[in-house]
Amino acid sequence: MGFVISTALTLVLSATAVDDPSKLDKAIRKEMEAAAAEYVAKKDDPAAAMARQSAENFLSMLERADERISTIQGELVWDKEFAIAGDSQTRIGKLYFSSPRTESGPRTRKFGVEIDTLVLGGRMEKKPESYIFDGEWLIEKRPLEKQAIKRRIVPPGEKFDPLKIGEGPFPIPIGQKKADILARYDARLSEVAEGLDSDEHRQFAEGSTQIVLTPKPGADDKFEEIRLWYKPAEGVDGNPWLPRMARTVSVDGDTSVIRLINMQANAAIPDGALSADVPETGWTVQVKEFREAKPDAQPAEKAKDAPQGK
């Protein structure tokens, strides 16, 4: 609206150059109407503005709900389609997440993904692998090959959110901060089935609330779009919302859909599910220490050593 006001002030200040005051009135009115029309044209559609405000309110509610959750666990189905190769794969397993409450200081967030089944080319096979983050190290284990990779992805003494949207190795929407999300993405609420091509995925999302995130202009992000679905938890005080599904489209066009099934909040995590230990004998273990990205590195260089979901 500042343009409207400045236009009027400009005309008023130049009034001494107008011989007929009535012409000035008409000129002001004309300029005001034109400027107002331009302002309105640039404003958001009311529905879009409401969707954005509703999304911000929803993110606030999710953040408050996360404060009441210390653990989450459940089953996981991870579908991925590769745009260039044209193939797809599905991984089936379990998810564990822990963020214990502390009297002071930030929580140490841990997560574990245990994959036991791989579906590739319509063929199902047992192929166990796990990814565990203990607050400092990300450990990949492949029992059949007896191989493990330990990557220190957090400098000693610092904190890192392993599931932060747009940065973590897995697009799993747990414990996200509203301010962090809105700093990088535009958010809006959407109809539950929007963006879903599969009948199976649409049916799975029923009863959920969908929020859509798109990177802000100029943002250095590996995703073109992120869609998240949440559903109220059962049997937990206050019925906090738990993640139900996540769909991402990468800048390369790859599509990833993660479905979370039978999610439980604040239940005890099984012993060893979040352990970073690897066998001392009989296994090949690679240890990769933390490496600072070069200040002038390109985005691809910065992410070169970062673990990616496969």
What is this structure's SSE topology?
Blueprint: H1 2-13, H2 21-42, H3 46-66, E1 71-81, E2 88-98, E3 110-120, E4 123-133, E5 137-142, E6 147-152, H4 178-184, E7 185-190, H5 199-205, E8 209-215, E9 223-232, E10 241-250, E11 255-265, E12 284-288, H6 299-302
Helix pairs in contact: 1-2
Kindly describe this structure.
- With 310 residues, the protein is α+β, with helices and mostly antiparallel strands.
- It has 2 domains: 2-43; 47-302, Clam (outer membrane lipoprotein receptor (LolB), chain A), CATH 2.50.20.10.
- Helices cover 24% and strands 34% of the residues.
- It is built from 6 helices and 12 strands.
- It has helices spanning 2-13, 21-42, 46-66, 178-184, 199-205, 299-302, and strands at residues 71-81, 88-98, 110-120, 123-133, 137-142, 147-152, 185-190, 209-215, 223-232, 241-250, 255-265, 284-288.
- Strands 7-8-9-10-11-1-2-3-4-5-6-12 form a 12-stranded mixed β-sheet, sandwiched between helices.
- Strand 10 and strand 11 (255-265) form a beta hairpin.
- The longest helix has 22 residues, at 21-42.
- The radius of gyration is 25 Å and the shape is globular.
- In whole angstroms, the N-to-C terminal distance is 49 Å
Strand order of the largest sheet: 7-8-9-10-11-1-2-3-4-5-6-12
Return the structural class: alpha+beta
Q: Helix coverage percent of residues?
A: 10-25%
Please indicate the percent range of residues in DSSP E strands (runs of 2 or more): 25-35%
**Overall geometric form:** globular
Which CATH architecture of the largest domain? Clam
Domain module count: 2
